[in-house]
Amino acid sequence: MSLYSCGFEGCSKKFKKPSLLELHENTHTNTRPFACKECDHRYFKNSHLKVHALRAHGCTEKRICKECNKTLASEEGLSRHKDVCGRVFTCNACSATFVRAKWFLNHSRACIGTVSLDNKKIALDTKIAQNTKPSLNTPNAEEMPQKSKNPDQTKKQDLVRCKICGKGFKLEKNCKFHESHAHNNLQYPCAHCSKVYNYKGSLTRHIQKIHSNINKS
């Protein structure tokens, strides 16, 4: 069995899955990708976020997406999330496909072109791509206000960013290692429709729920 090694200098840890490697590397960069929708708390793991949401805000299972286990702050937020969860997003500029809207939007800012999201087109120019983050609910990114530059923003722009998910690295070799390992063979396409999933378990649940009649026939 091939193991995935941490790309940070001085760290010899290895992991069986790219997803576990990514969680570990987040501790090196202090990247906490799981943010609470109710407050400013952020966590390394989604399981930690769910515990916080239940204890601090009383979020119930009804607010947790059964497809990806993401915790939402409200029923309305969960409903909006379900509209995009599990879909495939395609970049019109280079035809790259993504199963997560976040990765798609991060890529679009680096690719800079006209991209489609939920049958809507978002025109991205250089200034918008560098200074703003389009929202899933924003039909036109040009209408979004530009953020003023600050030292923290300049520091973030100096990082070498992953072309797939937008994660930043201080060294280019670490970024290349991340791209070749963390995003290698993560997509599981459905043989019966156009949906693609990051996890095999998600694909299995999809087939059992949507295509159960096909398997019986």
TrEMBL record:
Major place of localization? nucleus
- The residue ranges flagged as biased composition, category Polar residues, are 130-140
Q: Name one GO cellular component term.
A: nucleus
Could you give a GO molecular-function term held by this entry?
Answer: DNA-binding transcription activator activity, RNA polymerase II-specific
Which keywords has UniProt assigned to this entry?
DNA-binding, Metal-binding, Nucleus, Repeat, Zinc, Zinc-finger
What InterPro entries does the annotation carry?
Znf_C2H2_sf, Znf_C2H2_type
Compositional bias (Basic and acidic residues): 144-155
Where's the C2H2-type domain? Answer: 4-33, 34-57, 160-188, 188-216
| Cell compartments where the protein resides | Nucleus
The record, for Pfam families, names:
zf-C2H2 (PF00096)
Give the PROSITE patterns listed for this entry: ZINC_FINGER_C2H2_1 (PS00028), ZINC_FINGER_C2H2_2 (PS50157)
Give the residue ranges for region: Disordered: 130-155
Q: What is this protein called?
A: C2H2-type domain-containing protein
